């Protein structure tokens, strides 16, 4: 992992805005020092309030924290990358991000901050037939603007989310500042072994989002409750053997295979549970049995949800 980035982070996706500040403070008190945010989560201002409160009460300093955020699709044009970053910094009440990621390899037409923020996916939600509006912005131009953020001291490191191996190979041919991180969906139903090996071969660290699998997607109608990994036999067997919960086993599997994990919860007892995974180790047999659950089941797939929710078919995975 990048220097000082804790392998277990606190994911801020889908935490209700009204609960975010208190959840961040609670997470700091539980021991979290790594927070994974994004403009599109629509709660960065509240995240900033929570971080400021945690620092003001003396529980942590800025140097204790690792803060990640992400560039949204509508800000890919070089003229808008710094604008987006500065908006995130202002909302988070920070001078510098530890890590800034390109959220998706999807460029959409610019929507001014004063018009709508976060802009989300639809170009004009009030249109008779609202759709996504792709922008003609090559990824190499977006990356050059990300590099400029490092040059200006606005971010310490940069990286990408939701890239496949072909995009990584391409990125490494033109990157002046190489990506520090690849963030992808990864769990035992989507092990992504080739992609992780590809990234690590380039010296790029990997963060797994949705490390518990389907749990984050039930409420969105993007997963069936029968797809929960918490009841999978190899996970339950390992949990019983180590006196841990199935969730702890899943997070341990993710960390033990060399990725960071960013589980999300608003419950204080779950926050502490998700951090408590460093006093046991899964055997090679247990790791293999859990990895063998792989079905290449992707829950967060733009090739599915963009058409269903945004009237636009826009796949990024074949």
Q: How would you describe the overall organization of this protein?
A:
This protein is an alpha/beta fold and 318 residues long. The protein has a single domain, classed as Alpha-Beta Barrel (TIM Barrel). It is 38% helix and 11% strand. The protein is built from 11 helices and 8 strands. Strands 1-2-3-4-5-6-7-8 form an 8-stranded parallel beta sheet. α7 crosses α8. The longest helix has 15 residues. The mean pLDDT is 97.
Can you count the beta strands? 8
Rg on CA atoms, Å? 19 Å
Give helix % range.
25-40%
Helix/sheet category: alpha/beta
CATH topology: TIM Barrel
Instruction: State the low-pLDDT regions, or none.
Output: none
Q: What brief labels describe this structure?
A:
single chain; about 325 residues; alpha/beta; TIM Barrel; eight-stranded parallel beta sheet; 11 helices; 8 strands
Question: Quick recap of the structure?
Answer:
With 318 residues, the chain is α/β, with parallel strands linked by helices. Helices cover 38% and strands 11% of the residues.
Layout of helices and strands, plus pairs?
Layout: E1 10-11, H1 17-30, E2 34-36, H2 44-56, E3 66-71, H3 78-92, E4 97-102, H4 139-151, E5 155-161, H5 165-174, E6 181-185, H6 193-201, E7 205-209, H7 233-242, H8 246-256, E8 260-261, H9 268-275, H10 284-291, H11 302-310
Parallel strand pairs: 1-2, 2-3, 3-4, 4-5, 5-6, 6-7, 7-8
Helix pairs in contact: 1-2, 1-9, 2-3, 3-4, 7-8
């Amino acid at each position: 992992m990048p220097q000082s980035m804790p392998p277990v982070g606190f994911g801020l996706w889908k935490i209700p805005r009204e609960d975010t500040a208190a959840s961040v403070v609670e997470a700091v008190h539980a021991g979290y020092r790594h927070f994974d945010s994004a403009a599109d989560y629509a709660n960065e201002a509240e995240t900033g309030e929570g971080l400021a409160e945690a620092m003001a009460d003396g529980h942590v300093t800025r140097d204790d924290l690792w803060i990640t955020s992400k560039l949204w699709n509508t800000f890919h044009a070089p003229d808008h990358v710094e604008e987006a970053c500065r908006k995130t910094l202002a909302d988070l009440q920070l001078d510098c991000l530890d890590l800034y990621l390109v959220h998706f390899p999807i460029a959409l037409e610019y929507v001014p901050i004063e018009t709508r923020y976060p802009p989300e996916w639809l170009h004009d939600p009030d249109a008779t037939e609202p759709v996504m509006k792709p922008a003609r912005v090559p990824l190499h131009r977006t990356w050059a603007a990300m590099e400029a953020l490092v040059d200006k001291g606005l971010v310490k490191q940069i990286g990408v989310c939701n890239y496949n191996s072909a995009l990584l190979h391409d990125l490494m041919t033109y990157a002046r500042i190489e990506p520090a991180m690849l963030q992808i969906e990864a769990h035992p139903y989507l092990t992504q072994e080739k992609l992780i090996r590809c990234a690590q071969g380039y010296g790029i660290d990997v963060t797994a989002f949705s490390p518990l699998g389907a749990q984050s997607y039930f409420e969105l109608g993007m997963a069936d409750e029968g797809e929960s990994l918490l009841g999978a036999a190899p996970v339950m067997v390992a949990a019983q053997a180590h006196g841990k919960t199935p969730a702890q086993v899943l997070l341990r599997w993710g960390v033990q295979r060399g990725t960071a994990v960013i589980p999300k919860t608003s419950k204080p007892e779950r926050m502490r549970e998700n951090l408590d995974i460093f006093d046991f180790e899964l055997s090679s047999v247990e790791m293999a049995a859990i990895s063998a659950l792989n079905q290449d089941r992707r829950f967060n797939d733009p090739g599915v949800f963009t058409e269903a929710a945004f009237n636009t078919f826009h796949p990024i995975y074949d």
